[in-house]
């Protein structure tokens, strides 16, 4: 993991650098490279090694360019899609939800925080990044059509079900649910690991907790269940047993 | 026999036309068999069985909580069919001709529905806002019409029946017209209420902005004074005094200016007075309940791809729910973001919530609410509104301590 800092105010730049360096030394993480710059182009050229996600601390307003940090973050996203971006900036630009949504920013740290709190927040980011780089690559289901687009970790998916409205689907995952317009068949095309066990249900067999053979129901960890069509029961039981024997 | 079959298919078609519910093959066969059997036992009173069966199938097809509507659909189907059928028996000279004329009922019905389709759509989409007494009266009226009709068969009052039919048809037309009037009144009332609350919200917004402005003016005044005394202290090289002024005053002033209440200024980015008014009103309501609140709006946020009134209603329900849920938590917090992108708009509402409100499948079912019985109307209304659009998707998520709802409005791309 490399750590990048974009900051044009020299005093703040050095303070942040010092803070990060002392954290790295304390935790014996000397193998990490620390790249500091006040110019977005220069920083972008330094992003070379991409074996694991990098950590970026970006100020948003650089010199008079009010959105330099945001533009840079967009560029970084293209090169380093899993990189961890933290905006370190003044309150007037504070839009954490928006940046989380648009740029998947990890955090948003206000420069005006009391020094001790500021340093704690920086350390938390470093700590989180430390953990993140050892994670295996997450396997996503990314779906996009004319009316909707979303991305969810495949392992979190429980099932998709049709609703009383044509083409309106309901996706249930470990900690969320989502209503959108698409057809079950479009989704099967997207990922063949999904299994259509009933004309109204498309399920992720990996997450089945239990199969009720007499009533033909598949149970999920949240205790919700899906119907299983008569003809699909056998195939599903096979899949279920395969998954659990491996 | 063929006439009976034909009439039954008319029932299915008319029922489908009025309620937009297509019965399954099994339901149709069941209805047919039970209809024939009850005719054998009950003679003309068999219409009661038909009405009941259609009502039950309506319930099976998503009208479980809208019994009055299911009742209306089934009564309407049977009444209109017998009324028109009556006319035809008078016109037709032979059975064969009757057979040929029966499809006319369907055509006439679709014409009637076309004329009144706005009223019926309104009924379908705004079920929860229409007085149930009115619907019950309508149903009773229809039931009486229908019963009179069948009694006239039973006592074989053929000559009376023609007058009866004309009278009944004019009655049904006046009933539907009354419904139309009622609908228009309701719509007007809704519009008026909306305008009224919009005005109130905007006045509140202006007041809030004015009081913020006065506060900023006060801070500016203090600030200028402090900078002056800072200059004085620097001249005298009084480091202690400089430190004190910085720590106690300047820092405090800058923190004061960062108070979330100044987030209200972000609303300037919303290019719709109605939306601005709504959100400011909810922010003020939340602040008065000591909920800390953060609002983000990307520049030039204009809602596209959804009727403004509908968006305002959806947002107002989501925000009310968020305030109510957050209030019950130890550190209440609500975050709102209105994000405009090239192809879509995203509205994010995040609130602290004690327990996961997702008993997932039930969240949007009629009347479901974690707040107790009969209080889930808000979510049901959202669901009803969402059905009007195919470019909306709603994503809800719970990751402690935050419950997050994301409403995504895709711009039509074709």
Q: List low-confidence stretches of chain A.
A: none
Largest interface: chains, residues each = A-B, 29 and 37 residues
Q: Helix count of chain B?
A: 13
Q: How many extended strands of chain B?
A: 5
Name the strands of the widest sheet of chain B in spatial order. Answer: 1-2-3-5-4
- The strand line-up of the biggest sheet of chain A is 2-1-3-4-5
Order of helices and strands of chain A: EHEHEHEHEHEEEEEHEEEEEH
Morphology call of chain B: elongated
Which fold does the CATH topology of the largest domain in chain A refer to?
Rossmann fold
CATH superfamily of the largest domain in chain A: Response regulator
Helix content of chain A: 25-40%
Q: What's the multimeric state?
A: heterodimer
Strand count, sense and barrel status of the largest sheet of chain B are: 5 strands, mixed
Low-confidence stretches of chain B: 365-375
Total beta strands of chain A: 15
Reported CATH architecture of the largest domain in chain A: 3-Layer(aba) Sandwich
Task: List the total number of helices of chain A.
Answer: 7
- Report the biggest beta sheet of chain A as strand number plus sense, adding barrel if it closes: 5 strands, parallel
DSSP strand (E) fraction of chain B? 5-15%
């Amino acid at each position: 993991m490399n750590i990048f800092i974009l900051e044009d105010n020299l005093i703040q730049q050095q303070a942040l650098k010092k803070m990060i360096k002392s954290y790295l030394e304390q935790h014996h993480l000397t193998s990490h490279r620390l790249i500091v710059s006040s110019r977005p182009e220069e920083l972008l050229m330094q992003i070379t090694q991409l074996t694991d996600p990098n950590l970026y601390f970006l100020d948003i307003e650089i010199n008079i360019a009010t959105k330099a940090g945001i533009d840079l973050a967009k560029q970084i996203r293209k090169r380093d899609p899993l990189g961890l971006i933290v905006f370190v900036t003044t309150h007037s630009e504070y839009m954490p939800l928006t940046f989380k949504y648009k740029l998947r920013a990890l955090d948003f740290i206000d420069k005006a925080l009391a020094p001790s709190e500021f340093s704690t927040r920086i350390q938390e980011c470093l700590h989180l990044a430390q953990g993140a780089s050892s994670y295996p690559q997450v396997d996503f289901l990314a779906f996009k059509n004319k009316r909707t687009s979303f991305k969810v970790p495949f392992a979190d998916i429980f099932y998709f079900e049709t609703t009383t409205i044509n083409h309106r689907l309901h996706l249930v995952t470990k900690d969320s649910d989502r209503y959108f317009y698409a057809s079950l068949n479009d989704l099967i095309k997207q990922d063949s690991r999904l299994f259509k066990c009933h004309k109204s249900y498309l399920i992720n067999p990996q997450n089945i907790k239990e199969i009720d053979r007499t009533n033909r129901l598949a149970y999920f960890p949240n205790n919700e269940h899906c119907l299983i069509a008569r003809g699909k029961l056998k195939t599903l039981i096979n899949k279920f047993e395969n998954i659990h024997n491996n | 026999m063929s006439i009976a079959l034909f009439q039954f298919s008319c029932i299915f078609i008319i029922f489908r036309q009025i309620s937009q519910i297509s019965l399954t093959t099994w339901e149709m066969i069941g209805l047919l068999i039970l209809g024939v059997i009850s005719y054998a036992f009950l003679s003309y009173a068999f219409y009661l069985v038909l009405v009941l069966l259609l009502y039950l199938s309506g319930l099976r097809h998503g009208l479980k909580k809208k019994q009055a509507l299911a009742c209306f659909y089934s009564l309407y189907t049977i009444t209109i069919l017998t009324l028109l059928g009556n006319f035809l028996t008078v016109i037709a000279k032979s059975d064969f001709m009757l057979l040929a004329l029966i499809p006319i009922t369907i055509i006439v019905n679709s014409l009637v529905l076309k004329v009144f389709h706005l009223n019926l759509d309104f009924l379908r989409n705004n079920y929860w806002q229409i007085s149930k007494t009115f619907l019950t009266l309508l149903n009773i009226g229809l039931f009486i019409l229908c019963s009179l009709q069948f009694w006239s068969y039973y006592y074989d009052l053929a000559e009376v029946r023609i007058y009866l039919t004309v009278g009944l048809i004019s009655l049904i037309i006046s009933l539907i017209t009354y419904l139309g009037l009622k609908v228009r009144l309701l719509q007007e009332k809704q519009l008026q209420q909306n305008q009224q609350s919009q005005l109130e919200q905007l006045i509140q917004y202006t007041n809030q902005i004015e009081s913020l402005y006065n506060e900023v003016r006060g801070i500016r005044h203090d600030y200028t004074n402090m900078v002056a005394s800072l200059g004085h202290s620097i001249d005298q090289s009084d480091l202690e005094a400089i430190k004190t002024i910085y720590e106690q005053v300047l820092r405090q002033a800058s923190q004061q200016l960062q108070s979330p209440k100044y987030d209200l200024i972000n609303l300037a980015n919303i290019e719709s007075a109605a939306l601005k008014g709504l959100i400011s009103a909810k922010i003020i309501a939340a602040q008065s309940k000591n909920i800390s609140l953060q609002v983000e709006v990307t520049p030039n946020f204009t809602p596209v791809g959804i009727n403004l009134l509908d968006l305002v209603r959806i947002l107002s329900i989501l925000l009310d729910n968020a305030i109510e849920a957050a209030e019950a938590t130890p550190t209440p917090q609500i975050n709102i973001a209105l994000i405009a992108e090239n192809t879509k708009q995203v509205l994010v509402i995040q609130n602290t919530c004690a327990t996961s409100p997702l008993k997932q499948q039930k969240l949007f079912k009629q009347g479901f609410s974690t707040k107790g019985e009969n209080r889930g109307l808000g979510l049901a209304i959202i669901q009803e509104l969402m059905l009007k659009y195919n470019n909306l998707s709603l994503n809800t998520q719970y990751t402690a301590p935050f419950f997050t709802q994301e409403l995504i409005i895709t711009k039509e791309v074709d």
